[in-house]
Design brief:
It is built from 9 helices and 10 strands. It has about 280 residues and is an alpha/beta fold. A 4-stranded parallel beta sheet has the order 4-3-5-8, with helices on both faces. A hairpin with a 5-residue loop joins strand 6 and strand 7.
Length: about 280
């Protein structure tokens, strides 16, 4: 049985681009964004270990008794970001603990729950799950070699696997209820060694307001065309941003969000346990 559901088709390799952060999209953005856009001169390396994880160490090299496991989707993986801007890297530097990035692009909460449970065989110090959007429908398929492939859709009809959808629908698929169940199980099993975080699911305007507040800008004065504010683009958008014809942007988090989330994890742990997650160097 495989350890975790991960980027199984990218194992043990280094990439400059990935399907979610393609070279074609990058070249399009180069033409649209001003010379102040940081990715004109900043490269990204996706180093994927033998387990399909964006993690600097292999499983058997980790100091598990002090380690933080960070479970999540592509926002946790760090699509469109250099490794030193990912949530895991920032948390590692702030806590002086090893952080294992169990972020998987496209994963739904079913996969996050599986990964959070599966990794407990190593008895990490703490497990933080950054739950993703509940509307993701997550389907598994066991391959002949024993590995598990998956697809995430927002519609049952889009699943290419051979499923009895009638039976599946009769069983029920209350996605919010399942998330609540997963959180309850992990809370009961791990207690103070488990943290639940929902920052990934915040609406974009929430992040935009937080960024405006930090930069002492009235939110209402932020231009709808974000291309007019390259500082916003550089701090709040990863390299994979898609720019609409009206100038609004979509894509993965920038370093402003990853820094904020890592701070939120620290404060949440302190509020839950009354102790700091940091180790004194």
């Amino acid at each position: 049985m495989q350890l975790v559901i991960s980027q199984s088709h990218h194992k043990n390799q280094n990439y400059k681009f990935l399907p979610d952060d393609s070279q074609e999209l990058f070249q399009t953005n180069q033409k649209v964004l001003s010379k102040e856009w940081r990715f004109h001169y900043q490269d990204i390396d996706y180093n994927i270990n033998k387990h399909g994880l964006r993690c600097e160490k292999e499983i058997d090299e980790i100091d598990w008794k002090n380690a933080i496991v960070l479970v999540g989707c592509s926002q946790t993986f760090g699509v469109g970001l250099p490794y030193n801007e990912t949530i895991g890297y920032k948390l590692e530097k702030k806590t002086n603990r090893p952080v294992i990035n169990l972020g998987t692009s496209g994963a739904g909460n079913d996969a996050l729950f599986f990964n959070a449970c599966s990794i407990q065989k190593y008895k990490p110090f703490c497990t933080v799950v950054l739950w993703t959007y509940t509307q993701r429908l997550f389907f598994y398929k066991k391959e002949n070699n024993g590995s598990v492939s998956f697809i995430t859709t927002h519609n049952y009809k889009d699943c290419p696997y051979d499923l009895d959808l009638t039976e599946y629908l009769i069983q029920g698929h209350d996605l919010t209820g399942k998330l609540n169940l997963y959180q309850t199980i992990l809370e009961d099993l791990l207690q103070d060694k488990y943290l639940s975080n929902l920052d990934v699911t915040k609406e974009p305007k929430v992040w935009h307001k937080l960024w405006a507040e930090k930069n002492m800008i009235e939110y209402k004065n932020l231009p709808l065309n974000f291309l007019k504010n390259i500082k916003f683009v550089n701090e709040c958008q990863a390299r994979d941003l898609y720019v609409s014809h009206k100038g609004s942007t979509q894509g993965h988090f920038g370093f402003f969000q990853t820094d904020t989330i890592s701070d939120n994890i620290l404060s949440d742990y302190k509020a839950k346990t009354g102790t700091s997650l940091c180790i004194k160097s």
